[in-house]
């Protein structure tokens, strides 16, 4: 089996050194039988990430002047992709040798599979398995994740089952909703004009994609034959915590609005308010102020900052979402044909809700 062609889609936002390590890992990960192209989108980075991508061999770069979010940037790259397989890859992932080739072979040998993820190894503690494999979320599991309800027996067990904490990943298996930090997808199962729903710019977009695939009879898998190292939250850690929390909660509200009956949304909202009031009465730290929480529970998302936390003043939380009209300029590398010997670019996706309990896998 030779010349399985993969389009690597990378979204970058102020993660230059992680991007460098990710790109450097691609060549060995593709051996021995995968050719690939790298399509990178930089969301207005200020740390030199775009300049790194622009000069990296074999990378095709699209530069946005503003932070348009992960979902929009992925879709921009996808429209330029030519591979039969499409890899969503986060900049905070380093692939082990042969990992990309193993994932591509897996899909080639299983025509019924829509996508596959590798084993994710965490840096804390080193070499431990990252819980990036999940069943579809419910109001109960997300209340357990976001609130103190997670300490109660009626919530703790469902959360562990949702995160598949006690499951065995020593053999290939189907997973409902894996995190998209390193997700290889079969292009023929995707829409022709987008991968992710841009109404979910940072969080829950991969879960909605997985649900859409499942509703059409497709499956997503994990294979232990491919291994990557992952430092979750490379870009989203650069967000103001309030902005990050509003996007996490507001995105799940939007997900419920798109997929579940109104009863589920009412239960989730009620649980979030009970937790907020209990924290207020007892003097414990709250994730959000009242107005910000109310906005998130209506599904309202604050604008994404163009600069990371500490670099400049972020937009006011609670303001309307920005219009998607930022001018885009395309910068392509001299190379026009992907090859097995070229390195890629990287990106950071809206780093799907990172494992919490309080914070799981942003821009």
Would you summarize the structure shown here?
This protein is an alpha/beta fold and 363 residues long.
Overview of this protein structure:
The protein starts with a strand and ends in a 31-residue tail after the last strand. The protein has helices at 16-30, 49-55, 70-78, 99-109, 139-146, 153-162, 205-215, 241-259, 262-282, 290-297; strands at 4-12, 34-43, 59-64, 85-89, 93-95, 113-123, 126-129, 173-174, 182-186, 219-230, 328-332. The protein has ten helices and eleven strands. The longest helix is centred in the C-terminal third of the chain and has 21 residues, at 262-282. The chain is of the alpha/beta class and 363 residues long. 53% of the residues are buried. Helix 1 (16-30) packs parallel to helix 2 (49-55), helix 5 runs parallel beside helix 9 (262-282) and helix 8 runs parallel beside helix 10 (290-297). Helices cover 33% and strands 20% of the residues. Residues 7-132 form the Glycosyltransferase 2-like domain. This is GT2 family glycosyltransferase. Residues 328-345 have a biased composition (Polar residues). InterPro entries: Glyco_trans_2-like, Nucleotide-diphossugar_trans.
């Amino acid at each position: 089996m030779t010349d399985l062609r993969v389009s690597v889609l990378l979204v970058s936002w102020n993660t230059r050194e992680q991007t460098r390590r990710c790109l450097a890992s691609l060549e060995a990960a593709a051996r021995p039988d995968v050719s690939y192209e790298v399509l990178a989108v930089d969301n207005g980075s200020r740390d030199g990430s775009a300049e790194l991508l622009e000069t990296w061999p074999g990378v095709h770069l699209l530069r946005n002047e503003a932070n348009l979010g992960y979902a929009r940037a992925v879709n921009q790259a996808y429209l330029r992709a030519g591979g039969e397989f499409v890899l969503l890859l986060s900049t905070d992932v380093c692939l082990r040798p042969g990992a990309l080739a193993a994932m591509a072979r897996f899909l080639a040998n299983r025509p019924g599979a829509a996508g596959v993820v590798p084993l994710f190894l965490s840096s804390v503690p080193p070499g431990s398995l990252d819980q990036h494999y999940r069943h579809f979320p419910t109001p109960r599991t997300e209340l357990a994740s976001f609130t103190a309800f997670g300490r109660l027996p009626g919530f703790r067990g469902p959360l562990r089952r949702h995160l598949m904490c006690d499951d065995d990943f020593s053999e290939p298996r189907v997973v409902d909703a894996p995190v998209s930090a390193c997700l290889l997808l079969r292009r023929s199962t995707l829409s022709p004009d987008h991968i992710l729903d841009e109404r979910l710019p940072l969080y829950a977009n991969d879960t909605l994609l997985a649900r859409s695939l499942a509703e059409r009879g497709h499956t997503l898998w994990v294979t232990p034959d491919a291994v990557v190292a992952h430092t979750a939250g490379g870009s989203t850690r650069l967000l103001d915590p309030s902005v990050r929390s509003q996007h996490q909660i507001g995105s799940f509200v939007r997900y419920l609005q798109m997929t579940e009956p109104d009863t589920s949304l009412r239960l989730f909202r009620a649980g979030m308010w009970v937790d907020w009031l209990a924290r207020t009465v007892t003097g414990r730290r709250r994730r959000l102020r009242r107005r910000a929480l109310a906005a998130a529970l209506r599904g309202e998302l604050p604008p994404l900052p163009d600069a990371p936390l500490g670099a400049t003043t972020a937009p006011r939380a609670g303001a309307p979402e920005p219009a998607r009209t930022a001018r885009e300029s395309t910068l392509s590398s001299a190379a026009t044909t992907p090859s097995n010997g070229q390195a890629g670019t990287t990106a950071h996706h809206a780093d799907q809700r990172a494992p919490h309990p309080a914070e799981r896998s942003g821009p």
